[in-house]
């Protein structure tokens, strides 16, 4: 009788799981088989993830800002590029949400330029000291040059309309030549301070999202400003790299039209400065965002929306034969649009503190590689628009990488990316989604997106595995079997890193403490420790059979694992 009951136990448990999680199909209870083919390279593992950005440039040199930048620099073997707004905005350098200033340009009583690089130097010094490099954004408009200088300074809060931020700094210049002179002097100053070779390794770009409120001029006025800026940059340093247009949402008609009008001008338009054909262009930039919402009380992401933006942006670039070879940078590439819009006023952003943000990041970056390959695009970087918000409440639900100096789970996915080296290799198996299916319909089916990104270098292989779904509903962990072929015979050292509710997760630790808003020193130390990347188990030597090894795991919903095999 006991044996008979034991025999029925697995079936009973399966029925129980289906009862508790009715959205979960019986097929999903089975083991998901993933094959990693180390002997089938698919292309270079370009470190497109090693790019970050944020609205508030003055956070750069503040206490938590410098701490986080140090951690970001340390997680990568390659230089990390950083993009920030408001580098030419007039003001006293005091930060606020969606605001920053450097006072780089003012004018004396006679209207003569007064340049002051003190704050810009403080920002860029912070990057350079850590081996980071600027994606130097030329913008926004100094008050003395703005075509509509009043009102200029905004005092936006997350409970206010987003459009309230677009004040005098968003307007075209009243004097294009003076703005060009400012840019020329900025580039010259940078060369003098950091050296020609260093500045040659940077990227320069004009403005941000000129197809929406960030630019209060016309498309043609933006193109005119680009001609003046590109000419100034190249006069100051002929080998500098300059690009644009940083539109957002290429899948929107207005953004696509703006982008194509800009690229048409670069190829065959009449230059506003030289009168000659075309304009210099060394990189092409645009933004791509998802669109979460709350459905039946649960956050539902929309990775498909973000991939459609990327797909359309790549298609536009690929349609220009003379430009297709240029590096493309997705200047902001995120689950949604407003980093400073906390979940307190925007409940759809409640994904940000926990593991949904980290699993979304793993799954979406893998598809960016696939989309670039499909279009033949040279994707150089995808900027994660998330940093930190100084002296804000703990885990307030901003789109950030750390809170009060404590790392969030999403930062540990970037630590995983930093461990991946070499060339991408083929992945196959029982995979419910590929980039085209997610692009077209997002991840909404009964099965989760359980897949992998893998790479191989001379002495190691790395496999990132995720269990992602757009709907943040509870679900049991899934059994996953990862077969890695192409390993050397004998033994390899396996290290298994994990981000889930119980590993590499300071948010869980904070909630278990009772969610303190004034944690004591011991609690802060524990939170800092919990925020670091953790191994699921101790490293172990595993044997290969015919150059293959099978690694089995139970991967929780919204969890991410990194498997590293060394020999």
From TrEMBL:
Q: Which GO terms describe its molecular function?
A: hydrolase activity, hydrolyzing O-glycosyl compounds
Claim: Hydrolase is one of the keywords in the record: yes
Gene3D superfamilies linked: Glycosidases, Glycosyl hydrolase domain, family 39
**Domain Glycosyl hydrolases family 39 N-terminal catalytic, first and last residues per copy:** 33-529
Q: Which UniProt keywords apply?
A: Glycosidase, Hydrolase, Signal
UniProt KW Signal keyword: yes
User: What biological process terms from GO does the record include?
Assistant: carbohydrate metabolic process
| Active site location | 209
Q: Point out the signal peptide segment.
A: 1-27
Q: PANTHER family from the xrefs?
A: ALPHA-L-IDURONIDASE
Record family assignment: Belongs to the glycosyl hydrolase 39 family.
Mind telling me what this protein is named?
A: Xylan 1,4-beta-xylosidase
**What taxonomic lineage is listed for the species of origin?**
Bacteria, Pseudomonadati, Bacteroidota, Chitinophagia, Chitinophagales
């Amino acid at each position: 009788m006991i044996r008979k009951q034991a025999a029925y136990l697995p079936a009973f448990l399966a029925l129980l799981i289906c009862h508790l999680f009715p959205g979960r199909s019986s097929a999903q209870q089975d083991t998901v088989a993933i094959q990693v083919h180390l002997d089938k390279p698919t292309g270079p593992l370009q470190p497109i993830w090693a790019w970050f950005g944020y609205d508030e440039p003055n956070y750069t040199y503040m206490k938590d800002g410098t701490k986080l930048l140090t951690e970001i620099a340390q997680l990568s073997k390659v230089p990390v590029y950083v993009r920030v707004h408001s580098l030419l905005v007039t003001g006293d350098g005091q930060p606020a949400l969606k605001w920053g200033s450097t006072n780089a340009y003012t004018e004396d009583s006679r209207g003569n330029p007064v340049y002051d690089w003190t704050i810009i130097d403080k920002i860029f010094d912070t990057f350079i000291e850590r081996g980071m490099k600027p994606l130097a954004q030329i913008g926004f408009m100094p008050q003395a040059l703005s075509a509509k200088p009043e009102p200029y300074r905004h005092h936006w809060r997350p409970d206010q309309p987003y459009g309230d931020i677009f004040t005098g700094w968003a307007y075209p210049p009243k004097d294009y030549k003076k703005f060009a002179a400012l840019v020329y002097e900025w580039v010259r100053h940078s060369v003098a301070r950091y050296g020609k070779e260093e500045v040659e390794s940077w990227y320069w770009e004009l403005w941000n999202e000129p197809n929406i409120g960030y630019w209060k001029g016309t498309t043609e006025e933006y193109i005119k400003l680009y001609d003046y800026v590109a000419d100034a940059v190249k006069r100051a340093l002929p080998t500098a790299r300059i690009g644009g247009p940083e539109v957002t949402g290429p899948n929107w008609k207005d953004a696509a039209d703006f982008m194509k009008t800009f690229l048409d001008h670069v190829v065959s338009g009449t230059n506003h400065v030289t009168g000659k054909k075309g304009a210099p262009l060394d990189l092409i930039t645009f933004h791509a965002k998802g669109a979460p919402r709350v459905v039946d009380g649960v956050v539902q992401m929309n990775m498909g929306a973000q991939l459609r933006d990327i797909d359309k942006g790549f298609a536009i670039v690929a349609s220009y034969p003379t430009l297709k070879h240029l590096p493309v940078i997705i200047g902001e590439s995120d689950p949604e649009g407003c980093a400073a819009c906390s979940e307190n006023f925007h409940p759809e952003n409640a994904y940000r503190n926990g593991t949904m943000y980290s699993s979304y990041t793993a799954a979406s970056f893998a598809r960016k590689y696939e989309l670039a390959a499909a279009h033949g695009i040279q994707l150089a970087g995808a900027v994660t628009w998330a940093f930190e918000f100084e002296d804000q409440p703990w885990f307030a639900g901003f789109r950030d990488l750390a809170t009060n100096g404590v790392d969030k789970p999403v930062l540990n996915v970037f630590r995983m990316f930093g461990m991946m080296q070499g060339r991408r290799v083929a992945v196959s198996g029982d995979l419910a989604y590929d980039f085209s299916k997610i692009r077209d319909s997002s991840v909404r089916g009964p099965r989760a997106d359980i897949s992998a990104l893998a790479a191989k270098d001379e002495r190691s292989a790395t496999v990132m595995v995720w269990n992602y779904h757009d709907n943040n509903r509870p679900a049991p962990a899934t059994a996953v079997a990862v077969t890695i072929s192409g390993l050397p015979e004998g033994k390899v050292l396996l290290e298994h890193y994990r981000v889930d509710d119980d590993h590499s997760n300071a948010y869980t630790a904070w909630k278990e403490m009772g969610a303190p808003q004034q944690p004591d020193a011991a609690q802060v130390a524990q939170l800092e420790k919990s925020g670091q990347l953790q191994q699921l188990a101790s490293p172990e030597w595993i044997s290969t059979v015919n150059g293959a090894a099978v690694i089995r795991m139970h991967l929780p919903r919204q969890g991410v694992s990194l498997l590293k095999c060394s020999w």
